[in-house]
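seq as requested:
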Amino acid sequence: MPQRDPSRTEKATPKRRRKARNEGNVPKSGELNKAISILGGLIGLKILLGLISERLSEVYLYFIKQSFNISLNRENIFHLLIYSSKQIAIMVLPIMTFILLLSVVSLRLQVGPLWTTKPLQPKFKNFNLINGIKRLFFDVKTLINMLRSVLQALFVGIAPYIILKTELSHNILNLFYASIPQISSYILQTGYKMTIYALVPMFIIGLADLAYTRWDYEENLKMTKDEVKDERKQAEGDPTIKNKQKKKMLSVMQKRMLQDVPKADVVITNPTHIAVAILYDPTKAPAPIVLAKGANKIAEKIKEIARENNVPIKENKPLARALYKSVEIGETIPEELYRAVAAVLAQLYKYKKQR
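C-alpha coordinates:
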Protein backbone atom coordinates (compact mmCIF):
# COMPACT_ATOMS: atom_id res chain seq x y z
CA MET A 1 0.00 0.00 0.00
CA PRO A 2 1.69 3.25 -1.06
CA GLN A 3 2.23 5.90 1.56
CA ARG A 4 2.22 9.65 1.19
CA ASP A 5 5.50 11.50 0.85
CA PRO A 6 6.37 12.58 4.45
CA SER A 7 8.37 15.55 3.13
CA ARG A 8 5.18 17.18 1.79
CA THR A 9 4.28 19.13 4.90
CA GLU A 10 3.46 22.59 3.52
CA LYS A 11 0.02 23.74 2.44
CA ALA A 12 -0.44 24.31 -1.27
CA THR A 13 0.29 27.82 -2.51
CA PRO A 14 -2.35 29.81 -4.45
CA LYS A 15 -0.34 29.23 -7.65
CA ARG A 16 -0.41 25.45 -7.19
CA ARG A 17 -4.14 25.55 -6.45
CA ARG A 18 -4.81 27.60 -9.59
CA LYS A 19 -2.78 25.17 -11.70
CA ALA A 20 -4.65 22.15 -10.32
CA ARG A 21 -7.98 23.90 -10.81
CA ASN A 22 -7.19 24.88 -14.40
CA GLU A 23 -6.44 21.21 -15.10
CA GLY A 24 -9.86 20.24 -13.75
CA ASN A 25 -8.43 18.76 -10.56
CA VAL A 26 -11.03 19.81 -7.96
CA PRO A 27 -12.56 18.07 -4.92
CA LYS A 28 -16.06 16.79 -5.67
CA SER A 29 -18.19 13.86 -4.59
CA GLY A 30 -19.87 11.75 -7.26
CA GLU A 31 -21.89 9.91 -4.61
CA LEU A 32 -23.47 13.12 -3.35
CA ASN A 33 -24.38 14.08 -6.92
CA LYS A 34 -26.07 10.68 -7.38
CA ALA A 35 -28.17 11.15 -4.25
CA ILE A 36 -29.15 14.70 -5.27
CA SER A 37 -30.08 13.52 -8.79
CA ILE A 38 -32.31 10.74 -7.41
CA LEU A 39 -33.91 13.20 -4.99
CA GLY A 40 -34.50 15.64 -7.88
CA GLY A 41 -36.12 12.89 -9.95
CA LEU A 42 -38.31 11.91 -7.02
CA ILE A 43 -39.45 15.51 -6.41
CA GLY A 44 -40.10 16.06 -10.13
CA LEU A 45 -42.08 12.82 -10.37
CA LYS A 46 -44.18 13.74 -7.35
CA ILE A 47 -44.94 17.23 -8.72
CA LEU A 48 -45.74 16.04 -12.25
CA LEU A 49 -47.45 12.77 -11.36
CA GLY A 50 -50.91 14.12 -12.24
CA LEU A 51 -49.72 15.38 -15.64
CA ILE A 52 -47.97 12.07 -16.40
CA SER A 53 -51.06 10.10 -15.42
CA GLU A 54 -53.26 12.20 -17.73
CA ARG A 55 -50.81 11.88 -20.63
CA LEU A 56 -50.51 8.11 -20.19
CA SER A 57 -54.28 7.76 -20.17
CA GLU A 58 -54.50 9.82 -23.37
CA VAL A 59 -51.80 7.72 -25.06
CA TYR A 60 -53.45 4.43 -24.07
CA LEU A 61 -56.87 5.61 -25.29
CA TYR A 62 -55.39 6.96 -28.51
CA PHE A 63 -53.68 3.64 -29.34
CA ILE A 64 -56.75 1.61 -28.41
CA LYS A 65 -58.95 3.75 -30.70
CA GLN A 66 -56.44 3.77 -33.55
CA SER A 67 -55.85 0.02 -33.37
CA PHE A 68 -59.26 -0.60 -34.90
CA ASN A 69 -59.06 2.02 -37.65
CA ILE A 70 -55.42 2.37 -38.71
CA SER A 71 -53.60 0.19 -41.21
CA LEU A 72 -49.92 -0.55 -40.52
CA ASN A 73 -48.04 1.05 -43.39
CA ARG A 74 -44.85 3.12 -43.39
CA GLU A 75 -46.60 6.49 -43.20
CA ASN A 76 -48.88 5.52 -40.29
CA ILE A 77 -46.07 3.88 -38.32
CA PHE A 78 -43.97 7.05 -38.73
CA HIS A 79 -46.92 9.13 -37.52
CA LEU A 80 -47.35 6.90 -34.44
CA LEU A 81 -43.61 7.12 -33.70
CA ILE A 82 -43.68 10.93 -33.82
CA TYR A 83 -46.81 11.08 -31.66
CA SER A 84 -45.34 8.67 -29.08
CA SER A 85 -42.02 10.57 -28.96
CA LYS A 86 -43.78 13.89 -28.35
CA GLN A 87 -45.92 12.46 -25.55
CA ILE A 88 -42.91 10.80 -23.88
CA ALA A 89 -40.94 14.04 -24.17
CA ILE A 90 -43.76 16.03 -22.55
CA MET A 91 -43.77 13.57 -19.63
CA VAL A 92 -40.02 13.01 -19.20
CA LEU A 93 -38.26 16.24 -20.25
CA PRO A 94 -39.46 18.42 -17.32
CA ILE A 95 -38.21 15.84 -14.83
CA MET A 96 -34.88 15.41 -16.65
CA THR A 97 -34.45 19.21 -16.82
CA PHE A 98 -35.10 19.51 -13.09
CA ILE A 99 -32.55 16.74 -12.38
CA LEU A 100 -30.00 18.48 -14.63
CA LEU A 101 -30.47 21.83 -12.86
CA LEU A 102 -30.07 20.21 -9.43
CA SER A 103 -26.91 18.40 -10.56
CA VAL A 104 -25.40 21.61 -11.95
CA VAL A 105 -26.20 23.53 -8.75
CA SER A 106 -24.75 20.70 -6.63
CA LEU A 107 -21.55 20.64 -8.67
CA ARG A 108 -21.31 24.45 -8.62
CA LEU A 109 -21.62 24.52 -4.82
CA GLN A 110 -18.89 21.90 -4.51
CA VAL A 111 -16.26 23.29 -6.90
CA GLY A 112 -17.36 26.87 -7.68
CA PRO A 113 -17.25 28.44 -11.16
CA LEU A 114 -15.05 26.31 -13.42
CA TRP A 115 -14.93 25.61 -17.15
CA THR A 116 -12.11 23.56 -18.62
CA THR A 117 -11.77 20.85 -21.26
CA LYS A 118 -8.46 19.46 -19.96
CA PRO A 119 -10.04 16.47 -18.13
CA LEU A 120 -11.46 15.36 -21.51
CA GLN A 121 -8.01 15.24 -23.12
CA PRO A 122 -6.59 11.68 -23.34
CA LYS A 123 -3.77 10.83 -20.93
CA PHE A 124 -1.82 7.95 -22.41
CA LYS A 125 0.06 7.27 -19.17
CA ASN A 126 -3.24 6.03 -17.70
CA PHE A 127 -3.30 3.22 -20.28
CA ASN A 128 -0.34 1.47 -18.62
CA LEU A 129 -1.56 -2.06 -17.82
CA ILE A 130 0.90 -2.71 -14.96
CA ASN A 131 0.08 0.57 -13.22
CA GLY A 132 -3.61 -0.16 -13.72
CA ILE A 133 -3.27 -3.55 -11.99
CA LYS A 134 -1.31 -1.94 -9.14
CA ARG A 135 -4.00 0.70 -8.69
CA LEU A 136 -6.69 -2.00 -8.79
CA PHE A 137 -5.22 -4.14 -5.99
CA PHE A 138 -2.80 -1.99 -3.98
CA ASP A 139 -4.10 1.58 -4.16
CA VAL A 140 -5.75 3.11 -1.07
CA LYS A 141 -8.25 5.05 -3.17
CA THR A 142 -9.39 1.85 -4.91
CA LEU A 143 -10.01 0.14 -1.58
CA ILE A 144 -11.92 3.16 -0.26
CA ASN A 145 -14.04 3.33 -3.43
CA MET A 146 -14.76 -0.38 -3.15
CA LEU A 147 -15.77 -0.04 0.50
CA ARG A 148 -17.98 2.93 -0.34
CA SER A 149 -19.71 1.01 -3.15
CA VAL A 150 -20.27 -2.05 -0.93
CA LEU A 151 -21.76 0.12 1.86
CA GLN A 152 -23.99 1.93 -0.61
CA ALA A 153 -25.22 -1.30 -2.20
CA LEU A 154 -25.83 -2.76 1.27
CA PHE A 155 -27.85 0.20 2.55
CA VAL A 156 -29.72 0.69 -0.71
CA GLY A 157 -30.58 -3.02 -0.71
CA ILE A 158 -31.66 -3.07 2.95
CA ALA A 159 -34.16 -0.21 2.50
CA PRO A 160 -36.42 -2.05 -0.02
CA TYR A 161 -36.11 -5.24 2.03
CA ILE A 162 -37.42 -3.52 5.18
CA ILE A 163 -40.29 -1.86 3.32
CA LEU A 164 -41.33 -5.00 1.43
CA LYS A 165 -41.17 -7.13 4.57
CA THR A 166 -43.42 -4.68 6.42
CA GLU A 167 -45.87 -4.45 3.50
CA LEU A 168 -46.09 -8.24 3.08
CA SER A 169 -47.05 -8.72 6.70
CA HIS A 170 -49.54 -5.82 6.92
CA ASN A 171 -50.89 -4.41 3.63
CA ILE A 172 -50.27 -6.76 0.72
CA LEU A 173 -53.39 -8.89 1.37
CA ASN A 174 -55.65 -5.83 1.15
CA LEU A 175 -54.74 -5.48 -2.53
CA PHE A 176 -56.89 -8.54 -3.29
CA TYR A 177 -59.99 -6.38 -2.88
CA ALA A 178 -58.50 -3.19 -4.43
CA SER A 179 -59.27 -1.72 -7.83
CA ILE A 180 -56.66 -1.16 -10.56
CA PRO A 181 -56.21 2.57 -9.72
CA GLN A 182 -55.82 1.66 -6.04
CA ILE A 183 -53.20 -0.96 -6.86
CA SER A 184 -51.32 1.55 -9.04
CA SER A 185 -51.45 4.13 -6.26
CA TYR A 186 -50.20 1.57 -3.72
CA ILE A 187 -47.27 0.57 -5.97
CA LEU A 188 -46.28 4.23 -6.46
CA GLN A 189 -46.52 5.02 -2.74
CA THR A 190 -44.49 1.95 -1.80
CA GLY A 191 -41.84 2.76 -4.41
CA TYR A 192 -41.71 6.35 -3.15
CA LYS A 193 -41.23 5.14 0.43
CA MET A 194 -38.46 2.72 -0.60
CA THR A 195 -36.64 5.47 -2.47
CA ILE A 196 -36.83 7.83 0.53
CA TYR A 197 -35.45 5.11 2.82
CA ALA A 198 -32.61 4.45 0.39
CA LEU A 199 -31.81 8.16 -0.01
CA VAL A 200 -31.02 8.70 3.70
CA PRO A 201 -27.93 6.40 3.75
CA MET A 202 -26.98 7.63 0.26
CA PHE A 203 -26.82 11.23 1.50
CA ILE A 204 -24.82 10.19 4.58
CA ILE A 205 -22.35 8.30 2.39
CA GLY A 206 -22.24 11.22 -0.07
CA LEU A 207 -21.43 13.78 2.64
CA ALA A 208 -18.78 11.50 4.14
CA ASP A 209 -17.34 10.99 0.65
CA LEU A 210 -17.24 14.77 0.09
CA ALA A 211 -15.39 15.31 3.39
CA TYR A 212 -12.88 12.57 2.54
CA THR A 213 -12.44 13.85 -1.03
CA ARG A 214 -11.62 17.35 0.18
CA TRP A 215 -9.19 16.05 2.80
CA ASP A 216 -7.49 13.80 0.25
CA TYR A 217 -7.36 16.68 -2.25
CA GLU A 218 -5.58 18.93 0.27
CA GLU A 219 -3.13 16.16 1.17
CA ASN A 220 -2.28 15.52 -2.49
CA LEU A 221 -1.73 19.23 -3.11
CA LYS A 222 0.74 19.61 -0.23
CA MET A 223 4.25 20.73 -1.16
CA THR A 224 7.73 20.25 0.18
CA LYS A 225 9.59 23.21 1.70
CA ASP A 226 11.96 23.24 -1.29
CA GLU A 227 9.02 23.46 -3.72
CA VAL A 228 7.60 26.42 -1.80
CA LYS A 229 11.01 28.14 -1.86
CA ASP A 230 11.46 27.51 -5.59
CA GLU A 231 8.01 28.89 -6.34
CA ARG A 232 8.68 31.97 -4.25
CA LYS A 233 11.95 32.51 -6.08
CA GLN A 234 10.20 32.26 -9.43
CA ALA A 235 7.53 34.73 -8.32
CA GLU A 236 9.82 37.25 -6.63
CA GLY A 237 13.08 36.57 -8.42
CA ASP A 238 16.24 34.97 -7.02
CA PRO A 239 17.36 37.03 -3.95
CA THR A 240 21.03 36.59 -4.90
CA ILE A 241 20.45 37.97 -8.40
CA LYS A 242 18.27 40.76 -7.03
CA ASN A 243 20.99 41.79 -4.56
CA LYS A 244 23.57 41.85 -7.34
CA GLN A 245 21.29 43.97 -9.51
CA LYS A 246 20.64 46.31 -6.59
CA LYS A 247 24.38 46.72 -5.96
CA LYS A 248 24.96 47.50 -9.63
CA MET A 249 22.20 50.08 -9.63
CA LEU A 250 23.57 51.72 -6.50
CA SER A 251 27.04 51.76 -8.00
CA VAL A 252 25.77 53.44 -11.18
CA MET A 253 23.77 55.98 -9.15
CA GLN A 254 26.79 56.78 -6.98
CA LYS A 255 28.97 57.36 -10.04
CA ARG A 256 26.42 59.71 -11.59
CA MET A 257 25.96 61.49 -8.27
CA LEU A 258 29.70 62.01 -7.74
CA GLN A 259 30.04 63.31 -11.30
CA ASP A 260 27.60 66.12 -10.40
CA VAL A 261 29.50 67.25 -7.28
CA PRO A 262 31.80 69.69 -9.22
CA LYS A 263 28.65 71.56 -10.39
CA ALA A 264 27.55 72.26 -6.78
CA ASP A 265 27.58 75.72 -5.19
CA VAL A 266 28.33 74.32 -1.73
CA VAL A 267 28.75 71.07 0.20
CA ILE A 268 27.13 71.12 3.63
CA THR A 269 28.65 68.66 6.13
CA ASN A 270 28.05 67.15 9.54
CA PRO A 271 31.21 67.57 9.47
CA THR A 272 32.54 63.95 9.40
CA HIS A 273 29.60 61.60 8.78
CA ILE A 274 27.33 63.41 6.32
CA ALA A 275 27.86 65.50 3.19
CA VAL A 276 25.17 67.10 0.97
CA ALA A 277 26.04 68.91 -2.30
CA ILE A 278 23.64 71.73 -3.27
CA LEU A 279 23.18 73.72 -6.48
CA TYR A 280 21.04 76.84 -6.87
CA ASP A 281 20.24 77.75 -10.46
CA PRO A 282 17.02 79.77 -10.93
CA THR A 283 16.91 78.73 -14.61
CA LYS A 284 16.59 75.05 -13.63
CA ALA A 285 14.46 75.18 -10.46
CA PRO A 286 12.88 77.81 -8.21
CA ALA A 287 14.68 76.36 -5.17
CA PRO A 288 18.12 74.82 -4.50
CA ILE A 289 18.58 71.22 -5.69
CA VAL A 290 20.39 68.37 -3.91
CA LEU A 291 22.95 67.07 -6.42
CA ALA A 292 24.57 64.47 -4.15
CA LYS A 293 24.44 63.19 -0.62
CA GLY A 294 26.08 60.45 1.36
CA ALA A 295 27.26 59.17 4.71
CA ASN A 296 30.61 57.91 5.97
CA LYS A 297 32.79 56.79 2.99
CA ILE A 298 30.55 58.38 0.38
CA ALA A 299 30.53 61.63 2.40
CA GLU A 300 34.33 61.60 2.41
CA LYS A 301 34.34 60.99 -1.34
CA ILE A 302 31.97 63.95 -1.91
CA LYS A 303 34.19 66.24 0.17
CA GLU A 304 37.30 65.02 -1.63
CA ILE A 305 35.81 65.78 -5.06
CA ALA A 306 34.60 69.16 -3.76
CA ARG A 307 38.11 70.10 -2.64
CA GLU A 308 39.60 69.01 -5.97
CA ASN A 309 37.12 71.23 -7.84
CA ASN A 310 37.23 74.22 -5.43
CA VAL A 311 33.64 73.74 -4.28
CA PRO A 312 33.14 75.38 -0.87
CA ILE A 313 32.51 73.07 2.08
CA LYS A 314 30.37 74.48 4.88
CA GLU A 315 29.90 72.80 8.27
CA ASN A 316 26.33 72.95 9.57
CA LYS A 317 25.29 69.87 11.57
CA PRO A 318 21.50 70.47 11.93
CA LEU A 319 21.11 71.52 8.29
CA ALA A 320 23.23 68.63 6.97
CA ARG A 321 21.15 66.09 8.94
CA ALA A 322 17.85 67.64 7.88
CA LEU A 323 18.82 67.69 4.20
CA TYR A 324 20.15 64.11 4.31
CA LYS A 325 16.94 62.74 5.87
CA SER A 326 14.26 64.74 4.04
CA VAL A 327 15.56 65.33 0.49
CA GLU A 328 16.38 62.76 -2.21
CA ILE A 329 18.98 63.28 -4.93
CA GLY A 330 17.65 65.48 -7.74
CA GLU A 331 14.86 66.98 -5.60
CA THR A 332 14.48 70.60 -4.48
CA ILE A 333 14.84 71.37 -0.80
CA PRO A 334 11.60 71.70 1.25
CA GLU A 335 10.18 75.09 2.11
CA GLU A 336 11.04 74.81 5.79
CA LEU A 337 14.77 74.67 4.92
CA TYR A 338 14.77 77.67 2.55
CA ARG A 339 16.03 80.17 5.12
CA ALA A 340 18.85 77.97 6.44
CA VAL A 341 20.12 77.13 2.94
CA ALA A 342 19.67 80.73 1.78
CA ALA A 343 21.76 81.92 4.71
CA VAL A 344 24.59 79.54 3.73
CA LEU A 345 24.45 80.60 0.07
CA ALA A 346 24.34 84.29 1.02
CA GLN A 347 27.51 83.92 3.10
CA LEU A 348 29.23 82.20 0.20
CA TYR A 349 28.20 84.89 -2.31
CA LYS A 350 29.36 87.62 0.11
CA TYR A 351 32.70 85.84 0.56
CA LYS A 352 33.13 85.49 -3.22
CA LYS A 353 32.47 89.26 -3.72
CA GLN A 354 34.99 90.17 -1.04
CA ARG A 355 37.58 88.03 -2.76
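Strands lie at 266-269, 274-279, 289-295, 313-315.
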